[in-house]
């Protein structure tokens, strides 16, 4: 009998990649989102996670063996983030008609577990790298912690196993996503090329010169599937990255070359993307019309604020995956291909020229 998955946040970068992976493995997949996809083979579930009664109605006929929580909501403060995101996790398990059928539930969080929330992002004493799962929680409010606590309580109440997955910046394909570095850099490079402007790295000198890593959405999907179906993945929290490390001063010229432009020298000061792209909506609409692209709305393709948060960190970010390796997950993903594969798809589907 096929495994039955509920993918919460099925239209995001993670949710789309996971849905495709599970379908390819023969799973029945229910994809939950406010506006779920109507194609691809998954069964759409339309719901707002903060509307408990509507969520209960939407899930009335859904009895998953596995739940994958791949979404979050952003609020004005971390206190509000904690309240809203904890409620979203809690509401899903409360709304499911047969939680006793669940064998395993997985929660995707991220490196803010070690770096702190956006309000205190990488501030104060620099965290030790590489990040390891054994590190204690920070003494700050963090909605990742409240999400984890809700997962642990639901698992104890209903008797299922759990896993927590902590990726670094997720690189993958999704349109309209609020945290999408690959799409953002593709738009930025296109704007630079079309206007003849220098392709300047928008991040910090630490990120330019220091070691870092990222997480391909396909790598994360494989990791989620492995933990959900492996005894070694039960009741554990895992870091998950591609498996290589790089410096942006090495990767940036390669991204530039893909778009047929040259990388500018690293500036003496950080030049964030958000103010640089703030007035580019009309320019992008013109480029979209000139090349007959599918999305003229710059805001649906680029999330400059999030890319700035990642590339502007004043600390090194290297993630240890020893725990996963020892437990049996050995998949590897080359980081340049993570970006180039997304760029190829964006071009093939006419989102960039």
TrEMBL record:
PRISE-like Rossmann-fold domain sequence ranges: 63-353
CDD domains (UniProt xref): 5beta-POR_like_SDR_a
Protein name as annotated: NAD-dependent epimerase/dehydratase
SUPFAM superfamilies listed in its UniProt record: NAD(P)-binding Rossmann-fold domains
InterPro entries: NAD(P)-bd_dom_sf, PRISE-like_Rossmann-fold
Source species: Acetobacter senegalensis
Pfam families in the record: PRISE (PF22917)
Domain of life: Bacteria
